[in-house]
Design a protein that fits this description.
The complex is a heterodimer of chains A (286) and B (329).
Chain A (H helix, E strand, L loop, with lengths): L1 H31 L6 H19 L7 H18 L9 H23 L14 E4 L2 E4 H23 L1 H11 L1 H6 L4 H23 L11 H13 L5 H21 L4 H16 L9
Antiparallel strand pairs in A: 1-2
Helix pairs in contact in A: 1-5, 1-8, 1-9, 1-10, 2-3, 2-4, 2-8, 2-9, 3-8, 5-6, 5-8, 6-8, 9-10, 9-11, 10-11
Chain B lengths: L1 H18 L3 H4 L3 H27 L7 H18 L3 H23 L4 H21 L1 H4 L5 E2 L15 H22 L2 H11 L1 H6 L4 H27 L1 E2 L1 H4 L2 H14 L6 H19 L6 H16 L5 H20 L1
Antiparallel strand pairs in B: 1-2
Helix pairs in contact in B: 1-16, 3-8, 3-11, 3-13, 3-14, 4-5, 4-6, 4-11, 5-11, 8-11, 9-11, 13-14, 14-15
The chains are: A mainly alpha (286), B mainly alpha (329).
Chain lengths: 286, 329
């Protein structure tokens, strides 16, 4: 029983980061209607950035947090301006292939610049553990979980409570009508994309003490995030948070009972079941 | 406008397709002949993909699954039971048809991004199944095909027979696509692709139309999978069923022009040689060739989202008009 609980809790904790990755995607997908298959690659970039900051300047990922987020925001904004803005009106299939191509480009750029080696950040905290009752948890995972959920909730509050947030939700509901009400559509899109990329950058940063950085590290996260977003009901931020936690738990149990090879298959299966039986998502409104 | 161009200039494209078999004979060595074989094979594969996804405008990013089914079915039958790959090819086609019926039956009604994601999910599940059922597939180790040349083994010492085989495969797929384009199925499929509701209101049975085309596309892809396995003589789940292979179908089709019979062929004729040559010459920097391919794809999508074929057609049309004009004078 204790073991089951441990598996459950460790699933919840990895789910926190999945939630953060997916919240960014839900924002981009929900507000701009843009399908971004290169989402995970930005996570990879942030992990590399954290690694270089640690290796060259000696700042650990938590110390380089602000500068890392600023860099990710700039990269996100530039991506939006240079590429995404041109395909806002395009067919979904064009957007999908374009972002797949972008992910090819970013992955192989990383491969060319930094080789395929795994780059680990070993700070003191990496091997630290935290004890809660009889549960033993790795400290960086706890930190990642707390910050990830905190950031996701902050984003939700931002969308609910601020004027800009309300404008974003209005654009998500009906872009043309929102524009007629005096909302600058393109600026809102740009902001949503930038926030989404910054959040996935934060996720990469939080993962960097636990996970090695390598060129393909993001590829699993893109599909995972899409699955989470679909399960969560597409545009819903709380749905994405719940979906992320759920996928974390499913993955954790599949790994425990069936073996690591089945982790991915398990959430893909869950995804297909959701698509067939609850196409609006487990947490979405019909 | 584009449709008009299509009917007018298919003859030129047929000539290019048919004449392309001469090319391997003029290539100096096995390295370049290998590129020709891969070009024909991928032309056939991309056309097979296009048969559903191109005409119906619904992306499948999971076609590596059918490539894998074709490759594994024939290879396992051949290696374990000595059954000729020619028969294995048909068996693979049958298994792919069943898989496509199941997958298509559950996912074809999904819209847009949902369908795309479900194709990725199914392909990934199939890949994991292939890796984990080690008793049958040898898992991640992969399967070697013993080198025993002979027609019945679909193995040859020279590259030329492979060039013929892949070329015939490409021509057959093209014939099927062209035939389908002009059939009730083809018209229904294009109509569904443009506007499903409108097509249904006009009496098109959209789910049946999509399912038939999806199964056809899967079976043709699976045939290509068998040829691929017999040519490479080694198959392994993470390379055959990789997402990158699934993307390659789309890359070629998009470059040439989706939803046209010859577009994917043109895409493969242009991109497969470029891709292989880049891989050959830029091999010192790993990643550079895929990086360049990605940039090409982005450029095409941003500036020529219809693909290269319409441009080519305009070019041919211009030539024909010119020659007519000079004759007139």
């Amino acid at each position: 029983m204790e073991q089951i609980l441990q598996v459950f809790i460790s699933g919840i904790f990895s789910g926190g980061v999945y939630a953060l990755v997916s919240v960014g995607l839900a924002l981009i997908f929900g507000i701009i209607g843009l399908v971004n298959f290169a989402h995970g690659e930005y996570l990879m970039l942030a992990m590399y950035f954290a690694y270089w900051m640690y290796n060259i300047i000696g700042l650990d990922p938590y110390q380089s947090l602000l500068i890392n987020l600023a860099v990710m925001a700039i990269i996100g904004y530039l991506t939006y301006k240079i590429i995404m803005e041109r395909v806002l009106e395009a067919d979904h299939s064009i957007q999908i292939i374009l972002t797949l191509a972008l992910s090819m480009v970013l992955q192989n750029l990383a491969l060319m610049l930094w080789k395929a080696d795994y780059r680990n950040i070993r700070i003191d905290m990496t091997t630290d553990t935290t004890h809660i009752g009889f549960l033993t948890l790795s400290t960086p995972r706890v930190v990642a979980f707390v910050i990830a959920i905190g950031a996701s909730v902050l984003l939700y509050m931002f969308l609910q409570k601020t004027y800009t947030g309300a404008a974003m939700r209005a654009v998500a509901q009906n872009g043309k009508a929102a524009q007629l009400m005096g909302i600058n559509l393109k600026r809102t899109y740009g902001l949503a994309f930038t926030i989404g990329i910054t959040l996935v950058g934060l996720a990469g940063l939080l993962l960097s003490p636990i996970y090695p950085a390598f060129p393909l590290v993001g590829s699993n996260f893109s599909t995972l995030a899409f699955i989470v977003v679909v399960i969560g009901g597409l545009t819903s931020i709380p749905g994405a948070i719940m979906g992320g936690l759920l996928i974390g738990v499913v993955e954790s149990f599949a790994g425990y009972f069936a073996g690591p090879a089945y982790q991915q298959a398990a959430y893909f299966l869950l995804f297909i079941l959701v698509l067939i039986f609850k196409p609006n998502g487990l947490f979405g409104r019909s | 406008m584009i449709n008009k161009l299509l009917s007018k200039n298919n003859s030129v494209l047929w000539i290019i397709a048919l004449a392309s078999i001469i090319v391997p004979f003029f290539l100096p060595n096995r390295y370049f002949q290998d590129i020709a074989v891969m070009t024909f094979l991928w032309a056939g594969l991309a056309c097979s993909w296009n048969l559903y996804s191109g005409y119906c405008n619904r992306l499948s990013i999971g076609h590596a699954a059918y490539l894998g089914i074709g490759a594994y079915s024939s290879t396992l039958l051949y290696v374990n039971f000595g059954i000729s790959p020619w028969i294995g090819m048909l068996a693979g086609g049958a298994i792919s048809a069943v898989a496509a019926l199941i997958i298509g039956g559950t996912t074809l009604r999904l819209k847009g991004t949902f369908f795309v994601l479900s194709t990725i999910a199914f392909a990934e599940i199939l890949k994991v199944m292939t890796i984990t059922s080690k008793d049958i597939t040898k898992g991640a180790l992969g399967v070697f095909i013993p080198y025993e040349p002979g027609f019945s083994n679909m193995i040859w010492a020279s590259k030329i027979p492979y060039a013929f085989l892949t070329w015939i495969y490409m021509i057959i797929v093209l014939l099927i696509c062209v035939k389908m384009e002009r059939s009730k199925l083809g018209y229904s499929l294009i109509a569904v692709g443009e506007n499903q509701e409108a097509a249904e209101n006009l009496g098109v049975n959209s789910s049946r139309t999509m399912l038939i085309a999806f199964v056809m596309s899967a079976v043709l892809t699976s045939f290509g999978g068998t040829i691929y396995a017999q040519y490479i003589m080694f198959i392994e789940p993470t390379s055959v069923m990789s997402l990158m292979n699934s993307i390659n179908f789309i890359l070629l089709a998009i470059t040439g022009g989706m939803g046209t019979a010859f577009g994917p062929m043109v895409g493969s004729f242009i991109l497969t040689p470029i891709s292989n040559l880049l891989r050959g010459y830029l091999s010192s920097v790993s990643g550079l060739h895929t990086f360049v391919l990605g940039l090409i794809l982005i450029a095409i999508l941003l500036f020529r989202p219809d693909g290269i074929l319409p441009q080519l057609k305009l070019f041919f049309n211009g030539l024909i008009k010119k020659s007519k004009a000079t004759k007139g004078v």
